[in-house]
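Predict fold of Negative regulator of flagellin synthesis; 104 aa.
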Amino acid sequence: MTHRIDAPPPAARAAEAAAMSSVGRAGAPRTEPVAATPAVDRVILTGDAEGLQAMGRDLATAPPGIDMARVNALKAAIADGSYRVDAATVATRMLGLERQLEGV
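Predicted 3D structure, encoded as tokens:
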């Protein structure tokens, strides 16, 4: 079976070929120096990301509000298997959070 392709290259290939011709080909004599592409690394944060960063800064400077006695009691209850999750309370709070997020 013989495959024959007679169609001209697509527009993208034509643009690519035009760009390559301005760069030069391997083995071709060089009459002008090749300029290096300047390194440009840039990060642009979205408004949400900037908000998270601000919240992180606020939390880092906030006074500690962790009740270590409660944390240790919860760790002990989880470790000995006596900690129980109230599914109705979890569901109610998740729905409340969802309602708060709808207003944002």
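The longest helix spans residues 87-102.
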